[in-house]
Structures are given as structure tokens and as C-alpha cells.
Amino acid sequence: MHIEFVEIANFRKLLSARVDLSTTTTLFVGANNSGKTSAMLAMRRFLSPRRCPFEIHDLTLCHWPNLITLGESWIAARDADEVVDLTIAPWVSSLPTLDLWLHVETGEMHHVRDLIPTLDWEGGRLGVRLRYEPKDLGLLYKDFMGAVTDAEAMKAAAIAAVAVEHPDVDPQPDPPKLTVWPTNLIDFLSKRLSAHFTIRAYTLDPALLVDPVKSQAQPQALPLASLPIEGDPLKGLIRVHDIPAQRGFGEEQSGDDDDDTPVSASSNRLSDQLRSYYAKHLDPTKGPDPKDLGALQAIEAAQDAFDKRLTESFTAAFSEVEGMGYPGVTDPRPRVSTRLKAIDGLNHSAAVSFEVDVIAEDGVTMPLLRLPEANNGLGYQNLISMIFRLMSFRDAWMRVGKASKGGVINSTEPLHLVLVEEPEAHLHAQVQQVFIKKAYAVLRAHDDLIGNDKLRTQLVVSTHSSHVAHETSFACLRYFRRLPAGMVAKVPVSTVINLSEVFGTSNDTERFVTRYLRAQHADLFFADAAILVEGPAERMLLPNFIRAHYDELNQCYITLLEIGGSHAHRLKSLIDHLGLLTLIVTDLDTLDKTGGASVQPAMGVDQKTNNATLKTWVPGTDDVDTLLDAPVAYKIQSQPEDQLFAVRVAYQTPLTVTLPGTDAPEIALPYTFEDALVFENLAFFAALKGTGLVRKFSDAIEAGGGAAAIGEQMYLALKNGKKAEFALDVIETEGFKDLVVPRYIAEGLEWLLLQLKKKRVEILPKVEVAV
Length: 771
Hints:
The protein is α/β, with parallel strands linked by helices. It has 21 helices and 22 strands. Among the domains are: about 170 residues, no CATH class; about 90 residues, no CATH class. The chain has a six-stranded mixed beta sheet with strand order 7-10-11-3-12-13, with helices on both faces. The protein has a five-stranded antiparallel beta sheet with strand order 2-1-4-5-6. Strands 15-14-16-20-19 form a five-stranded mixed beta sheet. α5 packs parallel to α7, α11 runs parallel beside α20 and α18 packs antiparallel against α19. It is globular. InterPro entries: AAA_GajA/Old/RecF-like, Bact_Antivir_Def_Nuclease, P-loop_NTPase, TOPRIM_OLD.
């Protein structure tokens, strides 16, 4: 048995989203404010409501007007002495829900007997809806109207006070501004939500399940007469543990240290983690067994010895007290005794220390040196702390050691769901990679779990770290994407893309992209936009151009990838699925009309491009004349239904240049980034002294002969030139900031900035709104 997916509706930014879960580790990725935390919080709210109660802002904002109108209708019905609609129908479309879909084998049906929809069901997919809804609409109406009546009385009193203060003024002045709770139903629920709402479970019909449409889930509609399942249908079925993102830094925690919270969430010290683990799984005083005999005898002997010494030490003091008349003949006499607990040995600041490596000097062995817990690096403290929490989650689920002693022992739940938010906090890059590779193995490190599909562990991790993402396969990644207000709802919401479906059956492409992204450590899954560049010169110079000339663009979250025109098209499927705004800076790569030999660009001679991106992606042609004459629109690929996603290509186009010492403008046709940069800055490179390509370009400009001749010399030099060395030579020049950015790149960057400005607003006012 395992959780196939959850469908979350009307919860924060998740208006209607399906989140597929891997059978092992699932990783939530996406840019800031894309809904990852909303998804994690929704699972915590619905599956661990006692430790993570709902609040009013968990209701999606676009539904607030509906609830405000509902409260106003109650007040209007009261004023008109009409019957009030106290059915669930007006509420259903606004209530937060989580549909939990399980895959259940035939032999596991006894675990889900309360969820089986029909007697004909024989295993497979099974669903249950958890809905956060009013407990008693009659009582909610009564309390709300009572609060409204009190508020109206307060406002009437304020008006009366003005009349008393100004009896002769006509008309009466308005009273001072007064806001009295509740102003509307939402305001009322902001203080009384938990008192009037609860989670109820309903059986779903697998036959009515439909696939998402444009990444938006389509949860099945429940009949209004549906009755909730009695009791908690998930009790004994799923054990949920979580590590919140803050882990005690600035976040209010419940402080409830029960079995599902093996370490107090407000504590971040390793010694606290160890002490809690010891108390729950190792303490010999809790349900002792023969293995604890030696420890218990040692504690007893120490306690007797300490008692004897204390009695001797306090004899004189008690005798002095007796001289004052106490105790009398009938008064009880004081005695001192001890009660030693093994856990007290961990209850001090030095309970955990770190040994320092030492070496012998002149044959003399150095004494063992130790540093206190606080002196170790915060990253390693956090790693060890989280590993201990995962161990404690596993052992609490499996009832390891003392956790199995005492009380009523229930059977082990077949599902263990562990939620970890942002494990990268305070972890170094290498440690982040270690954690994500080892975390699931820690959760399964138990003899009864090895090779056991009847007891499933599913780990869900949300992250902003590319180091974490690159250690996880595409099949386990779930990408959260922001959708602007106006595209789906009146407010910004999120959608979730299952990246296991990106490449289909094209294993070669997936293998290439996976290995490439791991090598690049790019922030593709967390950026607002991407720039794909041709080679090392663009990779080094483009960021510096952006810093020098495009300050607004420099403040945006953009990832830059060097991938080359022959491979950039392999990212097409991934870019399309992510809906990631992308600029591709590439080269013409011209060939003769036979498509065989590489040649210098020229018009009207039927040249072809060897650039796979231009041929198969954007704009989708290999004809060089068409590419050189193409309007801007021809270089952009977009989707009508998604106004914030587009891909634009930027490549060399004809330039009008004036050579040094001449007045007549000429047309130049650059072949690649380097000669395009030179043609835009002829005076700069003519005066630049250096070696390699810099020297050859300078010599070509000095030799002259026209733009075509200079272009041919640079074309020949670039065939065997060191482009990365050229870029480094350019970067270190004093006049770098005065360089003119090649026009084709400048046009692309200006387009990208304009698109990002639209994306930043997150509002599409001309789009028909669907709620």
C-alpha cells in the first residue's frame, strides 16, 4: 500500500492541485512563493490536525468574498424576518479539502475497511476526502449573529454619544471612526475558526476520478447528502511525522512532545535530541527487560550509597533543628533521600561534546581534548539533529525499545509519511547532498522494513536548494509554478507539474539532461527565468554585461546555463513543462548550401544553419536567409493560454558598421558571439593589445579592406582560437563597462526584462477570470 497522490483544493495558493507522490522520496521544487509550503502545510493540517490547527488564512483568498456575502445574507435574512439557509451547499465550493488517493493491494483491504466505496471493490485505487467544514451550522449562525448584534449595539451607542454631546447640531456629525469586531463573517471566523470548524472524512468513488486539465486538478463533486465516515478512518492506517522549516527559529511551536513529536520542536540542541530519543527508546526504567538488569542494579547501588552519605551529612543540621522544638513527640521526622534517573546524565549543557583529533609529540601522548556542543559547526549540528529526528520517527513508528512498553500497543500502521521542509537550512552544499541521499535509508534502517512492501515509508521534502534537487531523479521531482491573478482565479495561485512525465519514453534525452544539470548545478527549478548561452565566452561575459548595463535585470532571479546550440533543444520539453521564461543566446553556425562545410555567413547563397536549436525549436527553420530577415515575432515561441511563458531566441543578425578611418557605413555579418562583439566595438578592439584572439582581431581591424574582409579574418581566427581566454582578456580591461553589448543580445535582454516585469505584477487584467 502507498499514497499515489493527493488533490488539494481551496487551501492557500492551491486552488486545485494534484500532487503525485513517489513510493520512496518526493521532492517539491519551485521558485519562491510558488506553493511548496502550502502543500506541505496542507498535509500537516489535514493529517496531523491536533498538532497543526487551521487558521483563517488557510482558506484561499478568492473565496473570501463568497463567505463575506454569505454572512451578509444571514444578516439580511434576520432583518427581513426570513428563513436562513443553514445547509452546507453555499459553503462547499469554499471549503479546504484534501483528497487522499491510495493504492491498496488485495491482501491489505482490512486496513481500509472504512474507506471501501462498494462491495464490488476488489483492490487498487481508493480515495478519501478530508474536508474542513463547520461542525454545526446552527450554532455557528447563532454565535455569529450574537456577535453582530453586540457590534451593532456598540455602533449605536457611539452614535447616541454624539447626539448627547451635540444636541443642537443638525444634521448630527458622524461619530469618531470605530471598528468593532466582527466586521463580517471572515472577521468572525478569524477568532472563532477552530471552535466552529472540524475535519470530516468522506468516501470517494475511484470510478469518478478524472485527470487534471492544464495541470489543474478536477476533484469529484460529492453529493450534498453525503454522510461523513464515523470516527477517524486514517487512525491505524497512516503515521505522520514532520520536521518544519524553521525548526525553532522564529516559529511558534506547540511544545507538545508526544510520540509524533519525538523531539520538542522548539529545541535545536543535539543534546535535547539525544535526551528525547533516550527517554522514548532506551530508558531502562520504562518497561525494563533482562537486558536492563545491570543498569538498574548500578543505579540502585549508587542511590543507596548517596542516601547513606546524605544522611550522615545532614545529621548535625537536623539535630540543631530539633533543639528549636521541632519535631515534637508526634511530629514526623525529616529524612533526606535521592532518586536517580539515568536520563539525568544527559540533562546538562555538556551532555554532548566533540572529540578533537590530537597527535603524540616527542613520544608524549596528548590528553583527550573535547569541545562543547555549541562549538561545532552549525551545519553539522543541524545534520546530526535531523538524522536523530528521522531515527526517532522510524523507531516511534516501529515501536522500538521502550516505545513498545506500557499502555495499549496498537499494530504498526502500514504507511509512514514523513514531511521535511527545507533541510538545507544551515547545511553546507556537500552536507545537503549527503542528507537527501541518506535520509530515506535512515527511515528504512530496521530489520522489519528491509524488503517489506507491506510497511511503506514515503518521504516528502520541500527545498530551494539546487544541490538537493540535483541528487534526486526527475521521476521524484514535483515542480510548483505560480499562476498570476487572472489566469485561473482572481488571486495568484499555483499549479504542480509531475516531472516524471516530462521526457516520456525518451530515456536518452532524460539521461543527458539529468547529467548535464548535475554538472552545472543550475538553479533551473527555482529561477524566475533562464538564459541558455552558446559557449564559455557568453557564460563569462553575459553576467558582466547584465551587471554593467541592466540593473533591473540584475535584481531578478535568473539562472544562466552554458549548453550550446547543438544541445539546447534537448531542454525544450523541460522548459515547456516548467513554463519557464527563457532566452536562448546562440550562434548562426552557417553551412554551405549542401549543408556540408562550415562557411562565413552570407545572404542570397542558400546557406543552411547547423544549429539544432534554430532548426528544431525556435524558430524552426534551417534557411539562413529566412533567419537573417526574420522579424522579432518569428524569434518568439509562446502559448496563447499562458501569457507569462515564452521562449525567445537571439542570434547574430546583419550589422551596420563604420570602420576606423572611414565614413561610409557597411553591412557586416557576424558568425559568432566574439566577432559580433568586435564589430559593435571596433575602436575598442583596434586599440586593445594582447595575445591570442585579441591580437588577431586587432590585426584584422588594422589590416582593413572592408567589413567582409575583416569578418573573414576573424572567422578564420575563431576556428582554432581560445574563446574562454578571449573572454578573460576582455573582462580584465579597464574600459569593459563602456563596451556596447552586441545588438542581438541587447534585444534579447530587453525582451526578457519586459517579460519579467509583467510576471512580477502577477496580474493579467485582460484575461477572463474563472473562479
